[in-house]
Amino acid sequence: MNIILEHRTWRYATKKFDPSKKVSDQDLETLLEATRLSASSYGLQPYHIFVISDQETKEKLKPASWNQSQITDASHVIVFANTTDFGEELVDNFIENTSTTRNIPIENLKGYADFMKSKLVSLPSESKDTWTAKQAYIAFGNLMQAAAELKIDTCPMEGFESDQYNEILGLTEKNLNAAVVLTIGYRSEEDQTQHLPKVRKSKEALFTHI
Length: 210
Hints:
InterPro entries: NfsB-like, Nitroreductase, Nitroreductase-like. GO terms for molecular function: oxidoreductase activity. This protein is α+β, with helices and mostly antiparallel strands. It starts with a helix and ends with a helix. It has two domains: 165 residues, NADH Oxidase; 34 residues, no CATH class.
């Protein structure tokens, strides 16, 4: 089987993690770097990612996660928090970083900066929140697939109370909102879900070639 398809066939939404197995520091850094390199609209990355290994914090998050065992049994809980609102500073910070990284005079980037600001800054607050959450999901998907390449199990989770996450992690005062969660670690042998075939739409039902 093609290695790309092999990785995607191997991964599944792990329901029961082995709490005795932890993701190594080296593998974690690889996953986080793969996430950092993810695409985002304009390259702005309007989100922040919390990497939680502290067991006490995970215990606090579990009730806010519908008491799902993945939160406390997984090696790490990765919380993708989108920026809920922003002004010109989002673009300005990116332009400064671009200028430094590519050794381009910042005045040479003014036209691009003004273009981004014209498209983004005047958006309604609700639209900004939706857009930044979508960007977080792109990084989220990249992390999940990178983990599969390392044979690290994951469970994508939307079953949690974001307002409670925001309170526990102090996100609201940071202009952030918990958008989606990914637990990572290693599957338990007791997790029967791993033996089930994937249920997906057929190619005929899913794709239209034009």
